[in-house]
Amino acid sequence: MIPVFKPHIDADTMKAAVDALHLGWLGMGSYVKAFEEKLTEAFELGPDRKLVAVNTCTSALHLALLTAGVGPGDEVITPALNNIGDFQAIGMCGARPVFVDINEHDLSINPDLIEPLIGPKTKAIIVLHYTGATAQVHRVLEIAKKHNLRVVEDAAHATGTRVEGKPIGSYGDLSCFSFDAIKTLTCIDGGAVVVPRAEEANDLYPARLLGMTQPNERLYGNSRAYQFDVLKQGFRYHLANLHAAIGLTQLAKLDEFNANRRKYCRLYNELLAGVPGVITPTDRFDGASIFHYCLRVLDGKRPDLQAHMCANGVDSGIHWMPGNRFTWLQDCRGANDVPVTDRIGDEILTLPLWSYMNDEVIHTVANAIRSFYGQPAL
Ligand SMILES: *Cc1c(COP(=O)(O)O)cnc(C)c1O
């Protein structure tokens, strides 16, 4: 079976993991410092911006929302087509999502629909760069500024994506990244939050470490202090050396991962062009890190196509069931007013996309789809 995701674990990653284990300091330490520094460089963060590594993107989103001042009874505007981690992070603040619809052309937030949803309890807007291609984040930043709201960019799909030439994290407000088991850059588990002001990072260092006022320099030197204070609520969100060591080897290859993935997406588009009954993604791949290739399957044929692909040895995924369909979230504001999400939620299909694929695999996947629609193999 050709899997949807296949992380690239090579000899460099294996060696880094073994080296980190040999170091003997398994918790947060020198590798985390190096990983934060390399990410800061890769994302071209200016001197005021700070990147804080954490254990998952869900943790990063939680910390970003707390930084945005989201608390009990508040609301956060988010596209209904989003990861469960985003909804849970909102819930962890005691707040509720407010669902906004997406654009047909990029499957990301539709900025025109945001303002009517802003209410007295709204604190933040989440912009997801769906698949890793860019969302209309600058429009959202303008709206947020006008209403004094914070913007959290979910860049879990978009590690290395540039928006108008600038890497996500280097402009804008708060940004969150995922390095989980299936993401383009994997730490096995890992995440990061970028804050636009150093003072905000100073709050996050204890927040990620159970609230402890441990000096960073000490931890980054593979040691810890036994005298410390706890100033406020904190979480066990820090990243371990082993994970950071793996991430460093992945980051060194990120540009190649991303260039390959763009090339494979273009080949899919070429091989699937003209197949009736499907819509291929618009080529907005330039400058982007594409995490998944999202095909749209029309006329309710998705379950049959998936079964046919499966019978031909090709797995496929659905990212995701829209949030307004979950029992827990059905009563959120906006849940009944996202018609594009409702329709597209039944059409989206994730095709296999890895950082290193050979053309034969891509042809096998495309031909499994083509044969379902009675098209000759290519
Ligand atoms: C994977 C993902 C997350 C959650 O990331 P974790 O690191 O697994 O917590 C959040 N948002 C999006 C868009 C994702 O794809």
Question: Any overview of this molecule?
Answer:
This protein is of the alpha/beta class and 378 residues long. The mean pLDDT is 98. α4 links the parallel β2 and β3 (96-100). 35% of the residues lie in helices and 14% in strands. The protein is globular and about 70 Å long. The protein folds into 2 domains: 11-248, Aspartate Aminotransferase, domain 2 (3-Layer(aba) Sandwich), CATH 3.40.640.10; 254-373, Aspartate Aminotransferase, domain 1 (Alpha-Beta Complex). The chain contains 12 helices and 12 strands. The strands form 3 sheets. It has a 7-stranded mixed β-sheet with strand order 1-9-8-5-4-2-3, with helices on both faces. A 3-stranded antiparallel β-sheet has the order 10-11-12. α2 packs parallel to α8 (241-251) and α3 (57-67) crosses α4. Residues 56-58, 83, 85-86, 128, 154, 156-157, 178, 180, 191 line the site of pyridoxal-5'-phosphate. Pyridoxal-5'-phosphate is lined by residues 56-58, 83, 85-86, 128, 154, 156-157, 178, 180, 191. InterPro entries: DegT/StrS_aminotransferase (IPR000653), PyrdxlP-dep_Trfase (IPR015424), PyrdxlP-dep_Trfase_major (IPR015421), PyrdxlP-dep_Trfase_small (IPR015422).
